[in-house]
Design a protein that fits this description.
single chain; 370 residues; alpha/beta; Rossmann fold; 2 domains; seven-stranded mixed beta sheet; six-stranded mixed beta sheet; 12 helices; 15 strands; 20% strand; signal; Leu-bd; Amino acid/amide ABC transporter substrate-binding protein, HAAT family
Length: 370
């Protein structure tokens, strides 16, 4: 009889604890399959690490211990799929979303999140339009293309050569960045010899590069992702184009080096929003924790995804609630030391003081330039 009463008491206690703990789901949306999956997984892993570490520390909201769970969705880097994913996340009851990777996915998805009053923090989408729509719950932890395009165009025109050909992949990211590059090239005394475009699924660039070769540029700027940049570099070499090459953050990866093989050289440059991982205030420690947890190197976006997830949770803590209607206002007010530096947003939702770093290929790796 005593044993039975003890069992009932323990069962009651466990039930009470379970009832007291609230599960809060946070969504992450990125390409988890296809040619950009390595970047999408980087975002998912960054968000997952943040959630696991907050759960380990323990978070209490409105008197209840909270357990955060991640709901990862594959947007396939496709605008239409991204809207389907966004609606699925909104319908499933997530309390905030970290994503998307591609601006072409983030922008249409942001309208669905806005209609659902669901906060979205992108760790990677850089097109300025994302935060120019007037949505109160749309943020990003990465510098935008105005800042990055200015850096690429200025560096190309003042350091690499005056005649510059621009190729983009016609996505919202690629075209938006290329537009800013063109403005910056002209503002810094350079000449745009031509604008060409491909797609984010293409692998054959012979026709485009033949036209570019006839322009005799000093520099080729490619505005797109590493999955196209690598094959493009191979074909640049095959056609005998003796030109410098610079690309933005979508191509500033170890993957482009792998894809290009011996076609990539010290004449290759790239940019990334933010500081190099080793120069980020929390970068060294984050890299160690990330590598230990996932047995893989950081690609690019994991620190930004970690800080995006942290921003959502810090806002919830400030509001003492995980309900978007209660914590969204606090999201615009967050100010905390993140991996990337101080995480705080301006009135539009852009990260404040977004830095951009230029890299050059040296000894088979991207090395930051002073």
């Amino acid at each position: 009889m005593k044993r039975s009463l003890v069992s009932i008491a323990i069962l009651g206690l466990l039930t009470s604890v379970a009832q007291a703990q609230e599960v809060v789901k946070i969504g992450v949306a990125a390409p988890l399959t296809g040619s950009q999956a390595h970047l999408g997984k980087d975002i998912e892993n960054g968000a997952r690490l943040a959630i696991e570490e907050y759960n380990a520390k323990g978070v209490t909201l409105a008197g209840k211990k909270v357990k955060f769970e991640l709901q990862a969705e594959d947007d396939q880097a496709d605008p239409r799929t991204a809207t389907t994913v966004a609606q699925r996340l909104a319908d499933s009851g997530v309390k905030g979303v970290v994503g998307h990777l591609n601006s072409g996915a983030s922008i249409p998805a942001s309208r669905i999140y806005n209609d659902a009053s669901l906060p979205q923090v992108s760790p990677a989408s850089t097109n300025p339009k994302l935060t120019q729509q007037g949505f109160k719950a749309t943020f990003r932890t990465i510098a935008n293309d105005v800042q990055q395009g200015l850096s690429i165009g200025k560096y190309a025109a003042t350091k690499l050569g005056k005649k510059i050909a621009i190729i983009d992949d016609r996505t919202a990211y690629g075209q938006g960045l290329a537009d800013e590059v063109e403005k910056a090239v002209k503002a810094n005394g350079g000449t745009v010899t031509g604008r060409e475009f491909t797609s984010d699924k293409a692998t054959d660039f012979q026709a485009i590069l033949t036209r570019v070769k006839a322009q005799n540029p000093d520099v080729i700027v490619y505005s797109g992702m590493d999955s196209q940049g690598g094959p493009m570099l191979k074909q640049i070499k095959q056609l005998g184009l003796n030109t410098k090459f610079i690309t933005g953050d979508g191509g500033c990866t170890s993957e482009i080096i792998k894809l290009a093989g011996d076609a990539i050289s010290a004449n290759a440059y790239c940019t990334q929003p933010g500081l190099p991982l080793e120069q980020m205030p929390g970068g060294k420690d984050f890299n160690a924790r990330y590598s230990k947890r996932f047995n893989a190197p950081v690609q690019i976006y994991a620190p930004y995804a970690y800080d995006a997830t942290s921003a959502l949770i810090e806002a919830m803590k400030a509001a003492n609630s995980a309900e978007p209607a209660k914590y969204t206002a606090q999201l615009g007010k967050v100010n905390f030391p993140g991996v990337i530096g101080t995480v705080a947003f301006d009135a539009k939702g852009d990260i404040k003081d977004g830095a951009v770093t230029v890299y050059q290929l040296k000894a088979g790796k991207w090395e930051p330039l002073p």
